[in-house]
Amino acid sequence: MRRLRFLLRPGWLALAVVVVAFAFMCFYVLAPWQLGKNTSTSHRNDLIEQSVNADPVPISQVVDADGFAPDDEWRRVVAEGSYVPDSDVLVRLRVIRDQPAYEVITPFQVQDGPVVLVNRGYVLPVQGTAPPEIDPAPTGPITLDARLRVSEGSSRQPIEEAGHLQVYNIAPQQIGPAVGIDPIDGYLQLDDGQPGGLGLIELPQTDAGPYLSYGLQWLAFGIMAPLGLAYFVRAEWRERRKAKAQDIADAAPPTPTEPAAPEEPVAEPRAQEPEFTLPTRKERRTAKKSKEQSAVRSANDVRLADRYGKNR
């Protein structure tokens, strides 16, 4: 514990708290959020794919006064009954093919059954954000082919604007009291070519999206953050140990050293004396001859000197 005492300093303590909080968010908030979206999207895609190949069934088989099961969403149903007149509601802030739009909701009285909201399709605004003139729903008994949809959560309160009741979500518990009806939880989305249908709202793409990879990335970040902190702690600890060892070495007194022994003089080698040998007979004759020649040259030099007066 003494080795890691520096972690209790404010800077390192704050960093450790941030890393722990980030790892907690990765494991318990961010990764579950993305993985949960991947699970719900995959489940939605499975329901859509099953409904494409399934035959429609009478609405009375899957819908009662309390609504329908969540696993029946996107299921194709046939509903007989009639629209409730003068009860259209516009859903604001919708986007269709990257364009702002309104969706039109009209209550539908099922024959011998409950009232259910019907999404008749979309209309595009005119003159900025003003809704266009909306074709009224047909009157009298009709038969609809539609898909079951789970209701959206309510948020902001309905408003009256441009002569229409407008809402922000398809929430039966909010729309019903506003128009004076008691619909079931959930609504119907019309297929193409149905009575009262407007712009067709297409099925969403059955693509799981990037949610799985995002969730795995957050898990990886949650693992890497503590590992990174541990790496920097170890590096800091090693540097502190090295600096402490260097400080101890610098503070230690110098160690006395023994005086070096004097170097012994190196004796110079003696010059080798030449060996004495007796001259040979030939060498004696040569030396005698050289001596006689030297005497003759000296006598000649004397005579020449007397002749030219050098000795006068």
Automatic annotation (TrEMBL):
Short name of any one Pfam family annotated for the protein: SURF1
Compartments reported by the entry: Cell membrane; Membrane
Biased composition (Basic and acidic residues): 303-312
Transmembrane residue ranges: 12-35, 211-233
Keywords associated with the record: Cell membrane, Membrane, Transmembrane, Transmembrane helix
PROSITE patterns: SURF1 (PS50895)
GO cellular component: plasma membrane
Protein origin, superkingdom: Bacteria
Primary location group: membrane
Membrane topology of the entry: Multi-pass membrane protein
Region (Disordered): 244-312
Family per record: Belongs to the SURF1 family.
Annotated protein name in UniProt: SURF1-like protein
